[in-house]
Amino acid sequence: MLGAAAFLSLGLLAPQSQAAPVGVTAPGAGNLRGASAPRAIPVPKSPDAISANPRFRLSSQDGTEETGPRPAPTSAAGTAKTSKPAAAANACADLSGVINSTGAALVQQLKALPQITCTYPLFNLTGENARKAFREDQMVTVANALRDNSATYAGDNSTATGQLVLFLRAGYYVQDNNAATVGDYGTPLATAARGALDAYFASPRSKDVTDANGEILNEVVTLIDSTHEAGRYAGVVKWMLGSYNGTWPGQMNLSMQHVEWVVDNAFKAKNDARGWRAALKADPTIVDTWAGFITRNEDQLNRLDVVSNVGRYLGNVLDVPELKERVRPFLKDLINRYPNVGPTAPITMNLGWYTRQYDKNNCAAYAICDLGQRVLPAVLPIQHTCTPGLKIRAQDMSPGQLASTCTSLVGQDAYFHRIIGDKGAIPGDVNTDLEVVAFDDYTQYALYAWAIYNIDVDNGGMYEEGNPAVPGNQARFIAHEASWLRPEFQIWNLNHEYTHYLDGRFNMHGDFDAGMTTPTIWWVEGIAENISFGYRNERNADAIAEAARRTYKLSDLFDTVYGQEEDPEVNSNRVYRWGFLAVRYMLQKHPADMETVLGKYRTGDWAGARTFLKQTIGTRYDADFETWLTNDCATNDCGPLPDATPPATTIPLCTGGDIRQFEQNCRRDGLAATTGNYSYHFVYLPAGVKQLKITSGGGTGNADLYYGGGSWATPTGFLAKSANAGNGETLTIDNPPSGWVYFTLAATQGFSGVTLSTQSK
Fold first, then answer.
1. DSSP letter (8 states) at residue 653
2. Residue 613 has what DSSP assignment?
């Protein structure tokens, strides 16, 4: 996802995903002494970015051993192994002996494997093979063998220590993902694993700073994480922090990288289940050693380096009340010792973020109350005006990218009103100005947006409405470019978030908090998804796939709120994809009901809207909604968005009997064509006509408009076209020829009920 571009950005280690919840009291934007941040609407994360980096954190690691484990162990370069390398495959014996053996025979089979990499396929075991290989008594057998093996550990893999360690790692990994099949792990294994780790670290050769030992040590360090024993081995972490320097060879360096997993997951464990916080309190000098690890190796600070990766977690110590006073001066020194942009930004900005998270309203203690103001000019130097009410502030956008972004937003405004209608802005709403902020990629957004704008960064961006009743209020969409789509340029969720701005200004009374007094998320996020996909004429494949599952009733979707489902992915599906489906259905099937609901939203009658949805509508549409999911979504991509604003009906109806023929100023209603077919038309223009305007709209489906001048118009032969999503199309032809001219509605999707009009002057 990042590639070479990663090294061109200002800093590449984003604050971890556990950012402060939206709306918490936190340092203010720009001036960190401020009050709580304005309530804001988060942007859905990119599925592409999530798959490339599940936790949106950028470091030498891309996941965690237990909560988001790699599918296999790592190589010296930190690359995930999902299967045996080709060279290893030829040298490795069949693993059926390992899978089917028990007791001493199992240990013998493991030790007979010619190299550590032969164990890699064990990480992929499922079903009965997983149960046979990794049930608890098997794991206890191998843990005891590792204990005995470690008594004579020679600092290398001469006695197959690595094969034993990797078997245990594979067992914990497979059981974590297949617990029902493998069975539970309890006290016998916990006791045996401690004995094995104790014996290994008691060996003097376990501290050899060599590649031979590092090949084993890096896997044993990961095993600490797998066994959830970080507190017990805090002394090992302290030794590594205190001993590490830039001369460590590759495999030893990798073992230091794996310390990141150990400390990250240890801090996150609920109720200190891994004993890490207790260990820090028992030996506070670990904090001193950790700070020294950073300053002693400061020459290595260079974005994705191991010092930044491991060093940033020092900020978590602020969340240990007994150690807060001890760590504060270290953090103040580190945040201000190195530049906040460039190669050292990952360490300084991450540590700064922890002060916001765990020491709120105390920015003066770290001398960073103006941190956002300091980094703003360097991080977001580009300022561009689209229109008087629409501006862009960007990190790195070309003139062409700025222009295309402006064009997209201005065009979307008209599309939004075509779908929703235009009753004017909510009375008292003075949010006439919007600023779009575009960071170069997610990493830059996560590094700096929290400091500059006082927002959470565990999302794909943030729309902040502010208070629309206050003159001079600045509505702002804070976003980042979709770097994973390059070389295509796209600001992630640009059109989705611009819809929030339009929806807030024209549909939702008051500020964001006001709209949240009852569940309105089904509409707020559903209309944003519909307008975004519709305006860009893109198919919402994820929502269509969800429709086939028929997970929710329509009446249940009216209750949707953020964070409703325990699983974040399930919640994202409900908020965005099912919100899309619910709104699409209501706009298509029950536009009058939607007008009633929006009428109440526009006046701030949240309770009235809620009563209408839950009592007047109630469950009446649930059965039809399920049918619609099965039929319309499966066969017609959930159908098109209906136009709310067909061409003005003040234009008179055409009088001729041939429905193809138009006069200079007339309309025809109810036009239709099936997918792939056409509705052909023509009009006679006398000499002297300066302009011909042809407009279509209303109805359902997707009709594109083509103009052929003196010849029949088709999608392959035309002089002008208008091909938006839906049926709202307009062509303005200057100085058309006299005589018969021809124009056509082409059914990209079958359409019906369309109004087509001509106006000339």
1. B
2. I
Q: What is the pLDDT of residues 263-288, one digit of tens each?
A: 999 999 999 999 999 999 999 999 99
Report the distance separating Cα 432 and Cα 462, nearest Å.
18
Do 508 and 606 touch, CB atoms closer than 8 A?
Answer: no
Instruction: Indicate the SS3 state at residue 4.
Output: helix
pLDDT digits 0-9 by tens, 585-630 = 999 999 889 999 999 999 999 999 999 999 999 999 999 999 999 9
Alpha helices in 15-151 (DSSP H): 47-52, 86-91, 96-100, 103-112, 127-134, 136-150
pLDDT at 42: 54
According to the model, what pLDDT value does residue 18 have?
31
d(CA 606, CA 599): 10
| Both tokens assigned to 459 | 């999302």
CATH 2.60.120.380 is right for the domain spanning 661-760: yes
| 8/363: higher pLDDT | 363
Higher pLDDT, 84 or 555: 555
Amino acid letter, residue 199: A
pLDDT of residue 75: 33
The two structure tokens encoding residue 147: 């204990």
Q: First vs last Cα of the chain: how many Å apart?
A: 54
Among 254, 199, 198, CA closest to 60: 254
Give the Å distances, CA to CA, from 77 to 54, 254, 659: 20, 7, 71
What value does the mean pLDDT take over residues 732-750? Answer: 94
Residue 215 · residue 166 · CB < 8 Å: no
Length of the chain: 761
- Per-residue confidence (pLDDT) for residue 40, from 0 to 100: 52
| Strand pairing category for 678-685 and 739-760 | antiparallel
Distance CA 26, CA 152 (A): 54
- Angle 372-374-380 (CA atoms, 0-180°, nearest 5)? 75
pLDDT above 90 covers a percentage of the chain that reads 72
Residue 59 φ/ψ, nearest 5 degrees: -165, -170
What would the pLDDT profile of 102-143 be if each residue is shown by its tens digit?
A: 999 999 999 999 999 999 999 999 999 999 999 999 999 999
Indicate if the pLDDT at residue 261 is higher than 80: yes
Residues of the chain with CATH 2.60.120.380: 661-760
Classify residue 687 as exposed, middle or buried by CB count within 10 Å of its CB (0-12, 13-18, 19+).
exposed
Is the pLDDT at 73 greater than 90? The verdict is no
Bridge partner list, 551 = none
Contacts of 94 (CB under 8 A, 6+ apart): none
Q: Any residues with CB less than 8 A from the CB of 465 and at least 6 apart, and which?
A: 38, 39, 40, 41, 431, 475, 500, 501, 504, 511, 512
**151: pLDDT confidence band, cut at 50, 70 and 90?**
very high
Lowest mean pLDDT among 17-31, 85-99, 525-539, 663-677: 17-31
CB 701 within 8 A of CB 677: no
Hey, what amino acid is at 485?
Answer: L
What pLDDT sits at residue 512?
A: 86
Round to whole Å and give the CA distance between 434 and 390: 5
Measured torsion, CA atoms of residues 225, 230, 234, 238, in degrees rounded to the nearest 10: 30
**Per-residue tokens: 48:** 């592409």
**Is-contact 681 694, C-beta < 8 A?**
no
Q: CA separation (Å) from 33 to 39, 355, 475?
A: 17, 12, 21
User: Whose CA is closest to 493, among 49, 62, 21, 51?
Assistant: 49
**High-pLDDT (> 70) share of the chain, %:** 87
**Tell me, what DSSP letter sits at residue 144?**
H
Beta bridge partners of 390: 387, 434
- Is residue 434 classed as helix, strand or coil in its secondary structure? strand
Of 630, 631, 620, the closest CA to residue 555 belongs to 620
